[in-house]
Structures are given as C-alpha cells and as structure tokens.
Amino acid sequence: MMALRLSKYLFLLLVFSLPLVRPFNFTLFGLLVPYTDLIFLGSFGLWCVAIIRSETTIRIDRLFLYIGLYAAAFTISTILSVDPTKSFYKLLGEYYLFGLCFLTFNLSSDRQFRKHIVYAWLSGTAITALASVAGFLLFYLGFKTDFDNYFLSHLGSLPAGDYPRIHALFANANMLCNFLNVSVVLIFVAAHLGWIRKRTAIILGAGTLFSALFSISPGLGGIALSVGLWIWAVWQKKWFAKPALACGILLAVLAFAATLVSPDTNNTAQEIPLPFIEKNLEPSVRVLVWQDTLQTVRQYPWFGKGTGMDVANTRYEVLSGMQQLLRDAHNIWLNVLGQTGVFGLTAFILLLIYLLTRCRFSITDGVNGQYFHVALSIAFVGAFLYQGLGGAFEDARHLWVLVGLLGAISCVRANEDDTLSASTLP
Question: How far apart are CA 123 and CA 380, in angstroms?
Fold first, then answer.
C-alpha cells in the first residue's frame, strides 16, 4: 500500500498549498503556473502505480460523463480557436483541472481521508489568514501600496481611500474571497463534528472572516449566503433558522446588486437617474464587461472564440484613477460562453445541474457523512454558483477539488442509503 499512501500524502500537500499562488509560480507557454501544480503529477503518478499494483481500484461516476462532455467542448473550441496554439496550452490546463477532480473523487472515498483533506484545507486557510493579518498590519505601519506590501491588492473599481484591500498569497482579492467561502463552511462542519476544538474553530473562523472582509469582494455575499444556509440546514427546527437564511439571502442579493452600478464617471454615456435626488449612476465595470463579452458571443456563437482566449477588451478608469484593461467576462457562464460557445455553455449547465442533483441541504439521520455532504453542497452553492455571477472562477483549482469531494461524498451517501434500504426489506 506504499504507492497509495504516498499518493495521498502528496495530495494532502497539494490541498494545503491551494492558496499559495504567489510568489510560488512560473510562466509556461505564456501561462502563470503555480509550482504546487507539479505536486499533482507526483500524486497522480503514484495513484496510477497503486492501481497497477492492485492497492486500489478506479472509481467511476456519472459525474465524469458530464465532465467529459464539458472537456469535449473545450477540445472543439481549441481546434476552431482564433489562436489554436495558445488555446492548446490552455486546454492542457483545463485537462489538469478535470484530472484534479478525478483524483479527488477517487482518493476521498475513504471517510478518514476526507477528514485529513479538511485538515489540509484548513491549514492552508490558517496560512492565508496570517498573510492577511500581516498585510493589514503592514498597511497601518505605512506600507500602503502593493509595491511595498506584498499582501496588498490594488483597489480595483473601489473608490480611493485610506483602507487596505488584501489578497494575501492569491493572485487577486476576489479569488481569495472565493477560497475563503469554502473554508468558512469547512470550519463549521469540522467544529460541529468535533474534528477541531471549538476554540480552534473560533480563532480560525475569526481569521478567515477578517481575511474575507478585507478582500472587499462581492463574494462576501456568497459567504453570507453559505452561513445562512448552514444555520438553516443544521438547525431547521430552531426559531432562528429561517431568519438566518432570509438574512443570508438578503445580504447576497444586496452584494450582487452593488456590483451592477457605479457612481457616474466618464467611462460610459449610459446613465441611471436616481429618483428624488439630482444624482446619476451608471452601469458598473462588470456590466460593461458583460456587454463587451456578448459582442464576442455574437461573433463566435456556436463554439466560441477559443479555449483561453480573451472574451472582452474593456478599458476602464476606476474611481481611484487607475486605468484597467479587463479581458475576462467576470462571470462564469459568460466566460464559458465566450470561449466555447453555445455548445460549451450547454455542457457546463448540464454539469452544474447534475451536481445540484447530488447536493443535499437537510439533515435527516444526523450521521457525520450527512453533515459533511450538506457542508460541501452549501460551499458549492456559495462559492461556485453564487460567486460565479460576479467572477470567472471556472478555472479555480480549489473549486475542482470541491467538485471532486462533492461527487465522492454524494456517491458514498447514495450507496449507504441503498444499503440501509436493502437491510430493511422483509
């Protein structure tokens, strides 16, 4: 069992390193690649050796039929791309993400190992929280730019002011918030199941929420939604369950609504007059990027512009005065549509629908596996579906690990339910 054990150790190291994107990266074929992606090659290779030596078996699920259809869409879009060479290198990255999901699914069938995955994820979260606190303290010690404060992000479309926006060791603040969305839910379930002490959960949770708040990302709405869903799912019979869910949904709606408008600037002539006051708003930079992406879709409707191609080309002067050039759609569905066309978007939607059918949002028997299943489902809704409205996170490594975990736990739970049903037959 040595090869399988080593494969699992390397996989845990990979999960721990998910938030360690900067400065641990290099450029390959014009793409930024974290060094930690190389860990996958070792883990996957040893897993293949374990298969050959009959230390484990390959587990297949219908999930991979939908991922295969999604991969086919990317492959066709690469062949028909406006720049096939560039698309080919990006396609290799997409296959890596699918392989990461496949390996996660196969390794996490073991209940004890799923627990170790949570430990590895939360250890990476702790490093992220420490980096965020360091960035915050350095800011108020006078290191107020991203040139002299490594953990600090530019303000993006936020107004200029004497406050820090942090991205820790991620490439940008929105990706940080997306990762932390999953982390918050894993902290909840680990504390609830007794995997970590309550005091540890409180400290880690405080650090995680601190990091998320100072990402100042629209993804905070996803965290609010996830918290509301968790309280509602676990304590459905308590008086506060429904108000908590309603509050989470409301905060999520408000956070998304805030991304749609901006104070009036010179970036566009489109204006939204406010009633009763002589003020105008305008469509936000995200809305302008979405409009630009739809122009690309009109030009390449069926199979898209090509895997990894820029689907937008929006120049924008943000409120802080910085000039920006935005090239992705800032929306999962539009980004997939722009790159792979209607065929790719259809495959992507089918994949998401299938994953939603494998989600669970209520507790019936109170066993540990069910709580973990609910937690992963909530993380999927908050980080993948909700945050995907305002960000192109379809290539986030941590989300494909999440999908693999969700597929594995839903498969295990389905088998347990079938076994329980069979045992009750007369």
Answer: 20
Q: Give the position of tokens 């995200």.
A: 286
Model confidence pLDDT, tens digit, residues 146-160? 889 999 998 877 887
Q: Which of 321, 217, 218 has the alpha carbon at shortest distance from 265? A: 321
User: Looking at the predicted structure, is the pLDDT value of residue 421 above 50?
Assistant: no
pLDDT digits (tens, 9 = 90+) for 171-191: 999 999 999 999 999 999 999
**Higher per-residue confidence, 376 vs 22:** 376
Tell me the C-alpha distance between 152 and 330, whole Å. Answer: 21
Beta strand 272-273 with 261-263: parallel, antiparallel or unpaired?
unpaired
Alpha-carbon torsion (310, 147, 177, 91), positive or negative: positive
C-alpha neighbours within 13 Å on the C-beta side of residue 159: 5
The pTM assigned to this predicted structure is: 0.94
Residues 218-229, mean pLDDT to the nearest whole number: 97
What b-and-e string marks burial along 349-359, b requiring 16 or more CB atoms within 10 Å of the CB?
eebbebbeebb
Q: In terms of C-beta density within 10 A (0-12 exposed, 13-18 middle, 19 or more buried), how is residue 23 classed?
A: exposed
Q: Is 115 exposed, middle or buried (0-12, 13-18, 19+ CB in 10 A)?
A: middle
Tell me which amino acid residue 284 is: S
Question: Would you say 337 and 345 are in contact if contact means Cβ atoms under 8 Å apart?
Answer: yes
The whole-angstrom distance between residue 15's C-alpha and the CA centroid of its chain comes to 14
